[in-house]
Amino acid sequence: MKAVFYSEVLEKLINKNDKHIYIPLDQYKNNPELLKDIVRSLRKSSISEIFIIDECEVFDPEAKEEYFIITDHINSTGDNPLIGPNDESLGTRFPDMTFPYPVKLSKEIKKLFKNKKIKFRNTVLYGSKKNPPKADIKKLISLNCQISNFNIMWIDILARHAGIEVGAVAVREKY
């Protein structure tokens, strides 16, 4: 069984079915403790995969796509959801973050997008509650990092700690 976190603005992208658990992300956004509790309960429910669909800010002026498949992230918050006492029943203190968004799940997303003729870009996520400083943008773009979002990164770290794999899509935020 899979769980799907989604931004309610993007609900139209999801074909809900009874095989998965659907969690509207808006009520948990920017609330690390609630996100931690949700991921813990997913672990106890034997969820093995999470898909996340959330809005992002695009800071690369060359990136014209609306959809971004997340392949990695840079945590620029100076914080981490795993700080504090470790719950060994959930996972190891320092989960392997070598491949935080497994290729297998990214391929599933790519296949879906190609079937629906949705243009997308693979990217590294700048994990922050705000866009990077202007002085850092050129370097980040050279690292294939064009977008920022906090919740995708935070959920991914929690899920990896719990042994759950994550596939993630960010959608250009509309103002």
Report on this model:
- The protein is an alpha/beta fold and 175 residues long.
- It has a single domain (2-172), classed as Nucleoside phosphorylase domain (Rossmann fold, 3-Layer(aba) Sandwich).
- The protein is built from four helices and seven strands; from the N terminus they run ββαββαβαβαβ.
- It has helices spanning 32-44, 103-115, 134-142, 151-161, and strands spanning 2-6, 20-24, 49-58, 67-75, 120-127, 145-148, 165-172.
- The protein has a five-stranded mixed barrel.
- α1 packs parallel to α4.
Features:
175 residues; alpha/beta; Rossmann fold; globular
Which geometry do the CA atoms define? globular
Class inferred from helices and paired strands? alpha/beta
Sequence of secondary-structure elements: EEHEEHEHEHE
Total number of helices: 4
Which blocks of ≥5 consecutive residues have pLDDT under 50?
none
**CATH class group:** Alpha Beta
> Main β-sheet: number of strands, strand sense, barrel status?
5 strands, mixed, barrel
Number of DSSP-assigned strands: 7
Architecture in CATH?
3-Layer(aba) Sandwich
Assembly form of the protein: single chain
The CATH topology corresponds to Rossmann fold
Write a compact overview of the structure shown.
This protein is 26% helix and 28% strand. By secondary structure, it is of the alpha/beta class. It has a single domain (2-172), classed as Nucleoside phosphorylase domain (Rossmann fold).
